[in-house]
Amino acid sequence: MTNTFQLTCQHTDGDLALAHIVGDLDIATAATLRAQALSLIEQGHRHLILDLAAVTFCDSSGFNALVGIYRCAQAAGGSLTLATVPDRLGRLLHLTGLDALLPAHPTAYAALAAHTRSAQTDSA
């Protein structure tokens, strides 16, 4: 468990934000993750893509933060999508059935493309 954590917003487009996370998602960083992600939602970016490529560790606190962010995004009429999910976290999402609620894509680019396709379908 460390205090190493950074969330950087890489891209915004209307109600969409792509954020890159670096470090550990654990008891020491989960509250910061949640607060920063909820700040993006409050700024009007109700659709979040979290790129987890540089996440080195995730415990139950980090996992619960992701679930909380998902719930807040849903309450705002938005969504939470994950990109480049580490294997261990991917297995946990699958075992709990949350992979059905939190779509995951192999890259941030793939997640952005999927969001664009979905937005175009919804507006058609």
Describe the structure.
The protein is of the alpha/beta class and about 120 residues long. It has one domain: STAS domain (Transcription Regulator spoIIAA, 2-Layer Sandwich). About 45% of the residues lie in helices and about 30% in strands. The protein has four helices and five strands, in the order ββαβαβαβα. It has a five-stranded mixed sheet, with helices on both faces. A hairpin with a 2-residue loop joins strand 1 and strand 2. It is globular and about 35 Å long. The N and C termini lie far apart (about 45 Å). The model has no long low-confidence stretch (mean pLDDT about 90).
- What is the share of helical residues? 40-55%
- State the helix count: 4
Biggest sheet: strands, sense, closure? 5 strands, mixed
Examine the secondary-structure arrangement and name the CATH architecture.
2-Layer Sandwich
Low-confidence stretches: none
Can you list the strand order of the major beta sheet?
1-2-3-4-5
Structural class: alpha/beta
CATH class label: Alpha Beta
Q: For this structure, what is the CATH homologous superfamily? A: STAS domain
- The fold-level CATH name is Transcription Regulator spoIIAA
Radius of gyration: 13 Å
* Inertia-based shape: globular
The sequence of SSEs as H and E is EEHEHEHEH
Q: Average pLDDT value? A: 91
Strand composition percent: 25-35%
Number of strands: 5
For the record, give the distance between the C-alpha atoms at the N and C termini, rounded to a whole number: 47 Å
Number of domains: 1
